[in-house]
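Human: If only I could read backbone structure tokens as easily as an amino acid sequence. Take your time, and here it is.
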Amino acid sequence: MLAFRNGSSHPMYFILLGIPGLENSQFWIAFLFCAMYIVAVVGNITVIHIIRIDHSLHEPMYLFLAMLAVSDLVLSSSTQPKMLAIFWFHAQEIEYHACLLQVFFIHAFSSVESGVLMAMALDRYVAICFPLHHSSILTLSVVGKLGAFVMLRGLLWVSPFCFMISRMPFCSNHIIPQSYCEHMAVLKLVCADTRVNRAYGLFVAFSVVGFDITVISVSYVMILRTVLGLPSGEARLKAFGTCASHICVILALYIPALFTFLTHRFGHQVPRVVHIMFANIYLLVPPMLNPIIYGVKTKQIRERVLQGFCGTAP
């Protein structure tokens, strides 16, 4: 039976089921998730540390990469420790306010991550289309303002989610059939008209992701036009190479994110286990892959990591 706080219409806690349908396999799946989470934490902390100590990397591309690494750390750490506790120790209860905090961090930093990818696309556009003016256009001040914009946008756009949910009454059902608290999953437990909440959720999704994807797409169309106009095949290959890692990161984020978003609202025929696995992948795979992709593709970061392993001085 659901316990409500005295004088309150919201519950004391929710129950997170983990991955319904794979209850007997969750214990072993957790080892894979734990390994991925460790790679994500170590990889992103390494990227942040290298960019912080190496002043030659205090350039727009690497500063945006550091912002992406911070966002990845917050995004993965907001869900994975609790998820592992569910899988290994059956710690399925999550306190009401902790659940709302998960909702806030997941959606706010998903927005931040999308915004950073948009800023990185603009950086690639300026670097390839206006190489002689790159340093004068994307100054440290401009980079700081772009970073502040994507951070404030995430915080301000998502904060109403938690405020509106906290003002609504909940039904007796307090079971969330997935591994973490997500806005739509929590909203389904509300005993009131949620059309305003759902409409606002769609507005945020399309205003953030729609805007970012539009900017990214236009940037890469302009980049493609410029690259195809280069006289040298080697120059074209080098230009494409500088964009390859960014494109991989974009696909790793947006494909599972859009699948999860659309399935929550329209994909009622999609098996629940498939939906939940993609929801978990969306919050874990990009934070794990991003430092690996950029570590392999970025010479300065790769050399710093090798120096650390070999114990040689820089």
